[in-house]
Amino acid sequence: MQSRLSAQSSWLQSYYFGRAVFSIAWVAAAVLFSAQAGPAAFLLVIYPAWDGVANLADARVNGGLIANPSQTLNAVVSAITALAVIVAVGHSSYAVLAVFGIWAILSGVLQLVTGARRWRDYGAQWAMILSGAQSALAGGYMISRSIGTVAPTILDVAPYAGFGAFYFLLSAIWLVASAHRSARA
User: Fold this and answer.
1) Could you tell me the pTM of the whole model?
2) CA nearest to 72, candidates 41, 121, 117
3) In whole angstroms, what is the distance from residue 123 CA to residue 30 CA?
4) CA of 108: how far to CAs of 6, 27, 79, in Å?
5) Cβ contact 139:101 at 8 Å
6) Taking the CB of residue 137, how many other CB atoms lie within 10 A of it?
7) Is the pLDDT score of 1 beyond 50?
8) Within 13 A of 25's CA, how many CA atoms are on the CB side?
9) What is the pLDDT of residue 174?
10) Residue 39's closest CA among 50, 26, 48?
C-alpha cells in the first residue's frame, strides 16, 4: 500500500510540475500573441483541451475513470468547452470570455472535489482546493466582464492561467518537500 501511494505521489509531483510548466508557457504565448487573432484563438481552444487531456491522464493513473468521477467529468466539461470556444470565437470575444467563465466555475468546483478526495491519501492538496475555489470565483468575474462594455482579449484569461500555474507549482513543491521529510523520518 505504501509503495503504491509513493508511486502515485511521485506521479502527482510530475503531473503538477507539468501542469505548471504548460500554464506558464501558455501565459507567455498569450502575452506574445495577444494582438494576433489566429494564434490567440488557437491558444484559447488549446487551454481547455489540454486541461481535459491532463485530467483524463491523471484519472487513469490514479485508479481509472470510474474511480475518479470528478476528473472524468472535468475532462468531459473541458472537451465541451474547447468545442464551445471554437464556436464562440466566431461570434465575439465577449462570448469567448463567457464560455471561459462558465468553464472556470465548473472545472474549479470539480478540482476542489478532486483535491478534497485526495487529501486523505496524499496530503498537500490545500493548494488544489484553494485553486479550485479561486477558479470558480474567477469564472464569475469573467462572466461579469463578458457582459461589460470593454471588449475582452486573451489577456483577460491570462491571469487565470497564471494563478493556475502558481497553484500547480506550489502543490508540486509541497509534495516534493513532504516526500523528502517522509524519507528522512
Assistant:
1) 0.90
2) 117
3) 33
4) 26, 19, 15
5) yes
6) 13
7) no
8) 9
9) 87
10) 26
Chain-centroid distance of CA 167 in Å reads 9
For residue 105, what is its C-alpha cell?
466555475
- Please report, to the nearest 10 degrees, the dihedral formed by the alpha carbons of residues 57, 60, 61, 66 taken in order: 140
Cα separation, 178 vs 60, whole angstroms:
24
| Cell triple for 181 | 521529510
Task: Break the chain into its structural domains and give their ranges.
Answer: 2-184
Res 5: pLDDT: 57
Reported as a pLDDT band with limits 50, 70 and 90, residue 3 is: low
Question: Taking a C-beta distance cutoff of 8 angstroms, is the pair 106, 93 a contact?
Answer: no
* The CA-based dihedral angle spanning residues 121, 2, 10, 65, taken in that order and rounded to the nearest 10 degrees: -60
155 vs 35, 137, 142, CA distance in Å? 10, 17, 11
How does pLDDT run across 102-156, given as a tens digit for each residue?
999 999 999 999 989 888 776 667 888 999 999 999 999 999 999 999 999 999 9
Long-range contacts of 172-175 (CB under 8 A, 24+ apart): 172/12, 172/13, 172/14, 172/16, 172/17, 172/20, 174/124, 174/127, 175/9, 175/12, 175/13, 175/16, 175/122, 175/124
Closest by CA to 82, choosing from 40, 107, 52, is 52
